[in-house]
Structure formats: C-alpha cells, structure tokens
Amino acid sequence: MMHLINYDESFSKISSVFKNTSATYKFYWFWSILESVENGNKAINKRELFARMLTLSWHTVNYFQLSFGKQDLIQNAIFNVKELENLDIDAKHSLILRSLMETKNPKTIALLNHFNNNVPHKFLSPWVGTGSKSKVYASSLDKDNNAPYKLYSDQIKIDDRWFVFLRNNLGVLKSFCFWNLSLFLQNRNPNVPEIPNKIHRPIIRGSLIKHKREFWDLVLDELGYVNCIYTGEKLVVGNYIIEHFLPHQFVAHDLMWNLIPAETLFNSAKRDKLPSFEKYFHDFCALQNEGFKIIKRSKPKNKFLQDYLNIFPQLNFDKSKFQDHIQPMLTIAHNNGFQYL
Fold first, then answer.
1. C-alpha–C-alpha distance, residues 125 and 19, integer Å
2. pTM given for the model
3. Are 229 and 284 in contact (CB under 8 A)?
4. What is the 3-state secondary structure (H, E, C) of 265-317?
5. Do 52 and 97 form a contact (C-beta atoms < 8 A)?
6. Residue of 72, 73, 123, 211 with fewest CB within 10 Å of its CB?
7. Of 208, 181, 211, which Cα lies nearest the Cα of 197?
C-alpha cells in the first residue's frame, strides 16, 4: 500500500522554495510541473518544462512588458526566442509551446537548455540540501529524502506519492504559486498597476469592448457626433472603434475612464503607444467629462458609471483629480518601456 506524504510538511517545504529567491525561475518551473502533472504525466522531459516556463511567462514579458529584474534570464530568453521563432507577442500558449517543443533552431534549443544549469536541482534544496549538481542529482534518487521528483539528465520523474499529492491539490498549489509570483513581480515593478492580471495571457476582449460600446453609443445618440481626439475625424454611431487611452498592455483592464471612441485607422496604428499628455490630455478629459455627464444624467443607474468610482468616489467628475490619476501613469508606463506616439 502506498503511504501518502505529510500534507503540512510538504506545503512547508514548498513554501521555503520561494523564500529569498532572486529570479522567477522556480515559480515558472513549479508551475510548469503542475501543468504537466495536470495532463497526467509522471515522467516529464526537461525540454517540455523549459518550453512551458517560457510559454507561461511569454505575455507577462512581451505583451505587458513587466520587468523580471537584472538577474533573471527568462526575460532575455523570451526576447531572443520571439525573433528566432518569429512568434507574435500575443500568440496563443498552444502555438508558443508547440514551436518551442518542435524547433530545430540550435540557438533556441541552447536558450532552453540554459535553464538546466540550475533550476531543476536548486528547486529541491529543501528536501536534499545544497551541494554540487551531481550530488543533488544523486540525492534526488534516494527515496528516504522524499523529494518531489527524481532528476535525470533529460527528464524528471515525479514520485508516486507526490504525484497523488500534486493532483489532489492542483488548484491550491497553482494559486499559491500565482500569489507568490505576483508578490515577486510587484516588488520588481513598483507602482505598476494590475500585476496579477498581467501574469496570464490577455483575454480576448472583442465581445467585452463591444459591450462597452453601449456607453459611447448612448453619448453619440445625444450629441450626434464627437471628434476623434487624435485625428479630428467626426465619429458617429457605427463608425468608430473603442480606444484605450493608456494602452491595455499597461493597465490590463477595460474600465470606462480609459476608453474613448476613436478613428479606426489611427487606433490600429497607435497599438501600444502612449499618447502625449501635453498634446492629448485636454481633449481626452473633455470627452470623458462629456460622456460621464450624459450617462449620469440620462442613465444614473448605468453599471458603467461604477468604473469611475476608484477615481471619483462621489461620482463627481473632477479634471484635476483625473489629471493626477492619468499623468503619473503615463510616466510610469514610459519608464517601464512603453514608447510615446
């Protein structure tokens, strides 16, 4: 009969893995193991796990442009792989993983194999202690150490008892990993908003933005038209696109205070660029104020007004408060790597 591992002791040792870590490797390594275990795998090729590490961190680096810190090589590996494999910044996880698993490009393979130098054996330190790579590999094979997996040159093998434990606690362990990774990244990106929302691949927002269009359709029905703040083009119902003033890649939300109607072609060209505060804020604020007043007057119970509560708790539009909210965010976004138009 197989004896189950001690629940409290196991969680305690997993917790200790993430203490005093200076890079994201262990978070993404453990997350990758959990994903593979979720698929029913006990013997897992290291190539798969390294590919999953880059896949899971892909959008956090490429799309949302978070910093992992100077000591973390995942970020540089992703930038290089993006060019080597010709992958888009918002490619689907399945495509990224398949590309990394099937590539024959020796440069990509070398980038993946680099993580074999430290990650697989250093993760096991709470169970087998520290020491040379060869010593840790040998210790992982000793069942008395109760390590989560055995280390081999090209793969890891999940211990049978640990496999049951991981499968039975997948939700809790993923949440634990996600929470600790969020704290780590918030430390490396102070003042950057919505860190937890930037760890997963961005959701497909088409239907959501279509839903948000109802707000501006109501405004345009009353006004007849508004001018695009970027091009001056007249915008009417059915002939505009919803635009994020601060790019979605930075704010990671679709709240109404950041959404305005814009001319379609300009929006396609703007993409993740930042608008100049001096050039565009006055018109952006005026348009937001106009829309806010119309909705508040004609549809006071409209759910979209709730999106403004974090800026205007009393739902009274105030230009100076709006400026104090927007201007620092533009500066932070630029410091984080986003470029101006």
1. 12
2. 0.82
3. yes
4. HHHHHHCCCECCHHHHHHHHHHHHHHHHHHHHHHCCCCHHHHHHCCCCCCCCC
5. yes
6. 211
7. 181
Helix (H, G, I), strand (E, B) or coil at 219: helix
b/e string for 309-338 if b means 16 or more Cβ within 10 A?
A: eebbeeeebeeeebeebbeebbebbeebeb
* pLDDT, tens digit (0-9, with 9 covering 90-100), for 214-223: 999 999 999 9
Helix-helix angle 7-17:160-168, to 10 degrees: 80
pLDDT digits (tens, 9 = 90+) for 24-68: 999 999 999 999 999 999 999 999 999 999 999 999 999 999 999
CB 239 within 8 A of CB 220: no
Angle between helical axes of 25-38 and 170-188 (0-180°, round to 10): 160
Q: 251 near 193, Cβ under 8 Å?
A: yes
Q: How is residue 266 written in tokens?
A: 């300009």
d(CA 329, CA 317): 19
Is 322 in contact with 336 (CB distance < 8 Å)?
A: no
Using the structure block, give the residue that is written with the tokens 């890891």: 156
Lookup: tokens for 56: 């899971």
